[in-house]
Amino acid sequence: MITFRTTSITFFIFLFVMNMISLSMHLVPVLFYVILVFVYMFLSVFLSFFISSGFYMKAYCKKETKEKIIALTFDDGPDPEITRAILDILKGKAKATFFCIGRKIDNNEQILKRMDQEGHLIGSHSYSHSDWFDLFSSTMMKNEFFSTDQKILEITGKKPLLFRPPYGVINPPLKKALRSFLYHIIGFSNRAWDTTTKNEGKILERLVRKLKPGDVVLLHDSIPQCIPVLIGFMKYIEENGFTVVSLAELFEIQPYA
């Protein structure tokens, strides 16, 4: 597997060899250095957008299994109307995981309590989910994680161990920040891209077409079209023999400290 560590080691080995060649009077063309740096930077940036690559750190994205089980996850809530509707749809049928934005918890404490009381899991999705989050310093990121954890702890009495990075991006500052926490990093293997289109039919078709055993499905309880999509998706998995299980059960991990 290509990782940031192995890529960095390889880069510096090549750099060392090229310098040794140059010192021995066999000058290495500058273009070779440019290409080497470009490849290193390209991989470091490009693979940061693919959480399943494990480039910077391990993330739970999919369970290798033939059993028709999947995990259902929601990002960017809680929303006073949409999240309540989703909880109504799931009640008595399936347990999901809600990756909550800390600042959205204010005035929605009862929704968080309901999630917990009905057996759903609650994870952190940062405090601000800022458009500039990936440019934050590691200290700023740690403050966001701590603030969100505290809010969830105060409301539910449970400290979350499940964390999904905003936008599913992992970079060096985030990796550094996460060293101070005991999170299980959660990715996804079936992304609906429900934030990019309002066409409910296209979203649902994309979900069911790609659905495989062991998938971690990603939806957003922050957009209205999630409600009809979820209704259609629940009907599809029931008709096709799939069972929704919690992330804790799927990966055999602890959701809370």
Written description of the protein model:
The chain is of the alpha/beta class. The protein folds into two domains: 4-49; 69-251, TIM Barrel, CATH 3.20.20. Helix content is 45%, strand content 12%. The protein is built from ten helices and eight strands. The protein has helices at residues 4-23, 30-46, 82-90, 102-105, 109-117, 138-156, 172-178, 200-210, 226-239, 247-251; strands at 69-77, 97-100, 121-124, 162-163, 184-185, 190-191, 216-220, 243-245. Strands 1, 2, 3, 6, 7 and 8 form a six-stranded parallel sheet that branches. It has a two-stranded parallel sheet with strand order 4-5. Helix 8 links the parallel strand 6 and strand 7. Helix 1 packs antiparallel against helix 2, helix 3 (82-90) packs parallel to helix 9 (226-239) and helix 6 (138-156) crosses helix 7 (172-178). The protein starts with a helix and ends in a 6-residue tail after the last helix. The mean pLDDT is 93.
Mean pLDDT: 93
Counting structural domains, the number is 2
CATH architecture of the largest domain: Alpha-Beta Barrel
In CATH, the homologous superfamily of the largest domain goes by the name Glycoside hydrolase/deacetylase
